[in-house]
């Protein structure tokens, strides 16, 4: 276990450095965009005087290095600052949205991961049969359609025709867990369609890969049933690539679902990030960007740890 | 040209009853001028609403485009629909412009002007309380207006009210405005959506609490997501604020809004998708609400930049656009053709004897040849924003038939107003209706206007606008404004292809009076003006 703690320690250090670099890249990126928050917020109403007054109030007239330094100092003290556009604390704006984003991602994962793995196992079990092809074709078709298209089809069927599920995922803080799940079921279904294919194909490929091993042949010779071989012998040994794909998809579910958020009017982080970029609201962009980075780094770290734990070879070796 | 609003706007700032014409007369007149598109059947149910009296109570849910996570309730920064409608639920102006286009009392009980229209006395309504219990007085009014003035102000209304020289209080219930020059339309300016009244001393995060004198008290405000308001039991207007509570949901996606209305998750939506409106009309229990008050699109040429400094080039480009086609294909009939000047046929100062400019490839060719630019390719800066790309494409084709080559330069939607508009020599824009002719001219066509989108410098026009502003004789004023319209139409750098209707929809449970076309959503006052039918 010693190398595991070492790994975690090293990766954490690297993560801090990565985050620092990312924050610089985001800052430069937003600086490079034409226009600034004053022009963007005032929009068509902007006149040179109002823009100047606004810039002065927000200290945008200071040089970029000074502003970055001030921001970094704040973050080091745990203060993400206030939104430039409406003066509200960034933490207030992001906190509950992050909660919503995580809730949707977890709900989708809870549906999609078991579904994808089961389908992957079944596809491996019935390899090259009509059933295998059907699963592959249908999941790959889902991944090929744009997300909003799947979303609209689901809305058409489940909200407008059948009237079973709401087309707006308008969650609020007073909702119980049951109502909340019901409210976000349609976006979760949409995202499930989007992420299932990738995980399913990876599971199938990994299992089929392992099925060629000698110990599987041994198991077959012993007369163990094929399904049992796949679930108990092949799957545990093909976990490592599956875990990696699951982690990547979960990261996607947290950072990349802005289109689904827009279609279902779900107040998550994606919409906030897009709006803030459009308005050049740097503190919000920085904070959301860093959260997304942390999500990627953490999920990758967890994936690596789980892969190691699931693989005795990696567990023993030195890194 | 299909709606009742047009006829009522005709009376804009008119106190002269004899000038009023009925909607029927107006439509007949408009048809005779060849301005009228088909009369929409959607109008009939919408005017039938007025018959049902307002009912109290209910939770009104609106699905609105025009909300952003960066929205603020600071009156200086209010810029789009969700904040606008929320603001008008929470706060009041001194003066309201009613659906007929008349300036009527709101927080000001009455007002009068000096003879030169440069000094205005406003008597405030007594005993009106803010949501925090404070009684509204002249201090609050002065604070609220001053918030938009001065060097450090970042207000969108700054340009509009820089004509105010000074504001003084005259006791607790009286305010005196001194203007730099006379303005007969001054009360209309106080109806601007930035100039709502807040308690004196409001600052920083207090703005987001939404304290005002309005019919509703802010319960929840999450920019870009929603606002929830609950009825103010102390509201001084007895015939307004019928809903018990209201919720404005920010729904950016048109399909999501449409679905939400169809499935009953909202009662009202703005900005109906015109491309599919013929299908939407078939849906049961949905009413389409269509109003036109002068919202128009422009294609602006910088008149100080070659080749657009040559009036022949401008005329060639004006003759090369097919307005009828744009109204038919781009607006699906929900609008009317423009005549290259900003005054809407519903405005009482509209010069109805100016001939309508038609699509004329031969004249376009003639003027282009006269300018010696027959082989020139014109760069038109366009964007996905506001459907500009569709307009550009249709324009490019109609111009090609006149032998005019237009090259579309696609600009990012993001930052369009700061980087393209007012900067590129030939680009798209649009304008909300202005309640008076003076505001329409002085905001975008006067030489010194901040938003002079064509950099037009016409001495005669500037003189006329200034003189007409303080002219109290209506006939003389009308003649002056006629000349202004003619100058802009024939010498200006603006193509006004069409006036676009506001197209909104509600379910059948919703009742309302005649809808104002001054701004979207019943001039943003939908929450306090509308009601549930029993």
Automatic annotation (TrEMBL), chain A:
Per its record, how is this protein called by name? Peptide/nickel transport system permease protein
What residue ranges are annotated as transmembrane? 12-30, 102-125, 137-161, 181-200, 242-267, 287-309
What residue range is the signal peptide? none
- Keyword Transmembrane (UniProt): yes
- Please tell me one Gene Ontology term that the record gives under cellular component: plasma membrane
**Keyword check for Transmembrane helix:** yes
- Predominant location of this chain? membrane
Boundaries of each ABC transmembrane type-1 domain copy?
98-303
Identify the keywords attached in UniProt to this record, alphabetized: Cell membrane, Membrane, Transmembrane, Transmembrane helix, Transport
Taxonomically, the superkingdom here is: Bacteria
Stated membrane topology is: Multi-pass membrane protein
CDD domains for this protein: TM_PBP2
Where does it reside?
Answer: Cell membrane
Record's family?
Belongs to the binding-protein-dependent transport system permease family.
What organism does this protein naturally occur in? Desulfocicer vacuolatum DSM 3385
Provide a GO biological process annotation. transmembrane transport
From TrEMBL, chain B:
Q: Which GO terms describe its cellular component?
A: ATP-binding cassette (ABC) transporter complex; outer membrane-bounded periplasmic space
- The residue ranges of the Solute-binding protein family domain are 103-452
State whether keyword Hydrolase applies: no
Molecular function via GO: iron-sulfur cluster binding; peptide transmembrane transporter activity
Q: What is its main location?
A: other
What InterPro entries would the database entry show? Peptide/Ni-bd, SBP_5, SBP_5_dom, TAT_signal, TAT_signal_bac_arc
Q: Which Pfam families match?
A: SBP_bac_5
Q: Which GO terms describe its biological process?
A: peptide transport
Q: Where in the cell is it found?
A: Cell envelope
Q: Which UniProt keywords apply?
A: Iron, Iron-sulfur, Metal-binding, Signal, Transport
Superkingdom of the organism of origin: Bacteria
Subunit record text: Heterodimer of a large and a small subunit.
The text of the family note is: Belongs to the bacterial solute-binding protein 5 family.
Q: What is this protein called?
A: Peptide/nickel transport system substrate-binding protein
State the organism of origin.
Desulfocicer vacuolatum DSM 3385
């Amino acid at each position: 276990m010693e190398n595991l703690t070492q790994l975690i320690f090293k990766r954490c250090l690297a993560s801090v450095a990565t985050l620092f670099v990312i924050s610089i890249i985001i800052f430069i990126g937003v600086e490079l965009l034409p226009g600034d928050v004053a022009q963007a917020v005032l929009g068509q109403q902007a006149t040179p005087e109002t823009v100047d007054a606004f810039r002065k109030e927000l200290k945008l007239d200071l040089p970029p290095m000074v502003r970055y330094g001030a921001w970094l100092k704040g973050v080091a003290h745990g203060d993400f600052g206030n939104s430039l556009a409406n003066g509200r604390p960034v933490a207030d704006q992001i906190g509950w949205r992050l909660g919503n984003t995580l809730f949707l991602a977890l709900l989708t994962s809870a549906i999609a991961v078991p579904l994808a793995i089961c389908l992957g196992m079944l596809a491996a079990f019935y390899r090259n049969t009509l059933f295998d092809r059907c699963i592959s074709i249908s999941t790959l078709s889902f991944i090929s359609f744009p997300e909003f298209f799947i979303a609209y089809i689901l809305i058409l069927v489940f909200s407008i025709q059948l009237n079973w599920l709401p087309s707006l995922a308008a969650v609020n803080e007073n909702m119980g867990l049951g109502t909340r799940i019901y409210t976000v079921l349609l976006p979760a279904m949409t995202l499930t369609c989007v992420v299932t294919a990738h995980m399913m194909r990876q599971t199938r490929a990994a299992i089929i890969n392992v099925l060629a091993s000698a110990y599987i042949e041994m198991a077959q010779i012993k007369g163990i049933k094929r399904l049992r071989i796949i679930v108990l012998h092949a799957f545990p040994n093909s976990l490592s690539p599956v875990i990696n794909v699951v982690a990547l998809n979960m990261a996607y579910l947290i950072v990349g679902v802005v289109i689904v958020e827009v279609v279902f009017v779900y107040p998550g982080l994606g919409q906030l990030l897009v709006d803030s970029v459009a308005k050049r609201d740097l503190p919000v962009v920085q904070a959301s960007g860093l959260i997304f980075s942390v999500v990627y780094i953490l999920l990758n770290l967890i994936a690596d740890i789980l892969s190691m734990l699931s693989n005795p070879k990696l567990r023993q070796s030195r890194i | 040209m299909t709606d009742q609003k047009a006829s009522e706007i005709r009376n804009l700032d008119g106190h002269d009853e004899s000038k009023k014409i009925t909607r029927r007369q107006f439509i007949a007149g408009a048809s005779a001028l060849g301005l009228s598109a088909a009369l929409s059947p959607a109008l009939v149910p919408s005017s039938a609403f007025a018959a049902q009296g307002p009912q109290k109570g209910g939770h009104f849910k609106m699905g609105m485009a025009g909300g952003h996570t960066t929205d603020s309730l600071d009156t200086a920064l209010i810029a789009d629909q969700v904040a606008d409608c929320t603001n008008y639920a929470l706060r009041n102006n001194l003066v309201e412009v009613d659906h007929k286009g008349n300036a009527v009392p709101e927080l000001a009980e009455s007002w009068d002007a000096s003879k030169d229209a440069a000094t205005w006395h406003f008597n405030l309504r007594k005993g009106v309380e803010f949501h925090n219990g404070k009684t509204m007085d002249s201090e609050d009014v002065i604070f609220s207006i001053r918030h938009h003035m001065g060097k450090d102000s970042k207000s969108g209304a700054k340009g509009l009210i820089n004509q105010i020289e000074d504001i003084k209080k005259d006791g607790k219930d009286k305010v005196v405005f001194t203007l730099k020059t006379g303005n007969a339309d001054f009360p209309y300016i106080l109806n601007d959506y930035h100039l709502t009244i807040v308690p004196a001393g409001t600052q920083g995060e207090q703005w987001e609490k939404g304290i005002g004198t309005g019919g509703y008290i802010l319960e929840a405000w999450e920019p870009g997501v929603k606002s929830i308001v609950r009825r103010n039991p102390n509201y001084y207007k007895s015939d307004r604020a019928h809903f018990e509570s209201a919720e404005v949901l920010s729904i950016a996606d048109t399909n999501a809004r449409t679905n939400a209305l169809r499935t009953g998750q909202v009662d009202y939506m703005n900005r109906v998708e015109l491309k599919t409106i013929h299908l939407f009309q078939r849906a049961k229990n949905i009413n389409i609400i269509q109003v036109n008050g002068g919202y128009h699109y422009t294609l602006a040429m910088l008149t100080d930049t070659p080749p657009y400094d040559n009036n022949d080039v401008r005329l060639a480009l004006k003759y090369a656009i097919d307005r009828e086609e744009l109204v038919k294909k781009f607006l699906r009939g929900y609008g009317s053709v423009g005549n290259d000047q900003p005054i809407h046929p519903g405005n009482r100062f509209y010069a109805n004897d100016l001939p309508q400019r038609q699509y004329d490839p031969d004249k376009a060719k003639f003027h282009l040849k006269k300018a010696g630019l027959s082989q020139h390719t014109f760069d038109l800066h366009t964007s996905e924003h506001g459907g500009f790309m569709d307009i550009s494409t249709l324009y490019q084709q109609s111009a090609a038939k006149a032998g005019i080559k237009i090259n579309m330069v696609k600009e990012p939607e993001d930052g369009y107003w700061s980087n393209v508009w007012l900067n590129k020599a030939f680009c798209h824009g649009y304008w909300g209706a202005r309640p008076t002719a003076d505001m329409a001219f002085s905001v975008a066509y006067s030489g010194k206007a901040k938003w002079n989108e064509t950099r037009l410098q016409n001495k005669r026009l500037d003189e006329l606008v200034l003189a007409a502003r303080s002219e109290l004789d209506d006939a003389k004023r009308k003649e002056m404004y006629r000349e202004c319209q003619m100058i802009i139409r024939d010498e200006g750098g603006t193509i006004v292809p069409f006036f676009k209707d506001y197209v909104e929809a509600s379910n059948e449970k919703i009742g309302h009076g005649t809808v104002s076309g001054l701004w979207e959503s019943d001039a943003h006052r939908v929450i306090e003006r509308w009601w549930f039918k029993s």
